[in-house]
């Protein structure tokens, strides 16, 4: 994978394309009903046509989209019987889907651009083994400190301890995502590899996260909510993905994205799984993936979400874009890569995060 993966109270109106429309129904509703022969279970925001224009060119319409707010919510929904054809988990979830028997391998002979994928995104037997290719990585990004540059001095975001600084009590927001908050807590306490976490490292991160919880005004469910919290003046600092920053920048909001705090920042990558017994047309699932992997999709992905593309050919088309330099280029700081980790450890983190949010 790329090197970088290693005070007003008045509500300010924002232009948040489809993300705002999805806020009220991120988890269950097929908010964008279109082609009935392909249902894509996805994060809100990825229904933007510029990301998969080739599918629309071929079929005359977008797939039907259903939305979720976080990876664990998506898994629980699918494990409970919700039917879709493809879903878009991040890498650390793939083993859970495989273990549950919810997915089947992709036939990469039907995906011509598969060979253009950066091989480091497939460097795991969880994704690719003798049984086949279980995962098509498509996009990657960073999780780092977004901040209001008018209210927060640059020196304050030089450390992740801004999230436990009493000066920012009630002025911070964290994602309602166990993976991202634990990435933050591990980094803040000196752990940059979550694949081999000791009990002592886990305890230190949990203690830090409990301190950070005291400063949290709200846990954001998706990037539109995070951006709205910042734009409204409700919070000044957030642990953010690239897309929340893009939304704010597009609205002219004074937002900074600190990826080089002394303790570091995190990276992640996501992609598509082929769900067993999908109700739709299997050929259209491949058409959708092929549209996603087309080189021209990289610009749409960058402009709407702020993420990088897993295809080296596609990334070559956007390498000179300012958003790549600002939000995706390598930084001189530690990086915690959200690669697959032990499922039991991940479940432990999830349970502990729920306790922390509940005040325990």
Would you kindly provide a written description of the structure presented here, covering whatever features stand out?
Residues 1-33 form the signal peptide. Keywords: Periplasm, Signal, Transport. It is found in: Periplasm. It comes from Paracoccus denitrificans (strain Pd 1222). InterPro entries: Sperm_putr-bd. By secondary structure, this protein is an alpha/beta fold. The chain has two domains: 37-139 and 269-328, Periplasmic binding protein-like II (D-Maltodextrin-Binding Protein, domain 2, 3-Layer(aba) Sandwich), CATH 3.40.190; 141-267 and 333-358, D-Maltodextrin-Binding Protein, domain 2. The protein is built from 13 helices and 14 strands. It has helices at 17-22, 53-59, 71-79, 94-99, 178-188, 199-213, 223-231, 242-250, 282-292, 297-304, 312-316, 322-327, 343-357; strands at residues 35-43, 63-68, 86-87, 103-104, 128-129, 132-133, 136-148, 172-175, 216-220, 237-241, 255-258, 265-275, 308-309, 335-337. Strands 1, 2, 3, 4, 7, 8, 9, 10, 11, 12, 13 and 14 form a twelve-stranded mixed sheet that branches. A two-stranded antiparallel sheet has the order 5-6. Helix 5 packs across helix 13 (343-357) and helix 6 (199-213) runs parallel beside helix 13. The protein is globular. The two termini are 38 Å apart.
